[in-house]
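Mods, move this if it's the wrong board.
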Amino acid sequence: MLACNSICAAINQPKRKMPSDKLSILQTPCAPCIVLLIIRVLKDVQFSDFGKKMSGEAGILSLMDDMGKALAGNRPLAMFGGGNPAHIPAVTAAFKQSLHDILADENRLLAMLGNYDTPQGNEAFIATVRDFFNRRYSWNITAENIAITPGSQAGFFMLFNLLAGRSPEGGKKILFPLVPEYIGYVDQALEPDCFVSRRPEIEKVGDHEFKYRVDFDALHLNDDIAAICVSRPTNPSGNVVTDEELEHLAALAIENDIPLLVDNAYGLPFPGIVTAAAQPNWNDHIVHSFSLSKIGLPSSRVGIFVGPAELMRALTSANAIMNLANPSFGQYLARRLIEDDEILRISEAYIKPYYFERADKMRELITDHFPADLPWRLHAYEGSYFFWLWLEDARRSSKDLYGYLKERGVIIVPGEYFFPGQDVSEWSHAHECLRLNFARPDAELQAGIPLLAEAIRYAYV
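Not the wrong board. Structure tokens:
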């Protein structure tokens, strides 16, 4: 049987065909391989405008392409580029117990495996979510305020295109009040120029730290803004907009009669990977999204949206057209965990401590190895499982450093991909940042950090 690395190597050989006698014995390829196979197959297909948009050079596609090529050789020493949640034994045990309970209940098992749920989501799961948020935050929401989607990314794709694009009132846009922002947003609008963003205020802290803040003086909303969107904490930087900033954004949304979309994939109340004192608030102009992925169920593809009833009905309608129904497995598995607040207990007792310990470990190694005499800075760690490294006034771009590190067995993500609504060619900061996944085993941290330190020296040569 061919190893996956052999598949990667074969895919990356121009015009090379896999021998037919080996095709039937290939093991299942890794995700980067699958992306590369799709790219290879689709090169000669004639697409519509929609097809060209969806198959073009998206940042996430280029990243997966590069990652696949990087993996074509030996496995990297340090995989700081990924985003898969950690497998935490105590958390897995909670999921396992929930699954055992379902297996012991014939009716629930048959319903989970054999019945379609509604496009809005499983009715019992929706009721559990409603009761959870009313119990915990006194939001006073109803089932009509909730919509379930096949992962929060699919939900944002639908929301962005429900709200932005051509309309009788003219072209509408999504505003990101602070960038960098999540790489998965960048290519989700079906029409061009649907995203606009504002550069942040950058506050330098000490010798080697900094913090992004929303620049409200630059945050002027025009009639073409259809919604405001912010993630909390933000992937890639780990920045958490403060309660005061969130309240200010919510006030702007009310003033302009538009929704404020808040992505809580890493945040409150679960998995709660947040160091800052923060609270989620809700009103009929706010849409919150929550995910089961970062509590350790990424394959279940469950996105939870809480927002104005009219917008949730539109999201449900779009979901029916795109997906017919939602995956049932994650909703059944997580329902008990949400119903009895177990999801909060495992977040507080296991998920947060795991990521905070990994952050401390990487920061300790960074302090020991990074050159103190050069102007590198880490964004203040406030949440998620990434560090955001800024090399101010570096002579080499983050893409240059990506290539330099890849050759040495360290995979990172260059910063240019994380700036929706910005012309990065006009802003040097976008080329000076790297995203690092710190939630890696000790051996990878110990092997990769010294090489990162060498890359920093190289960046200023």
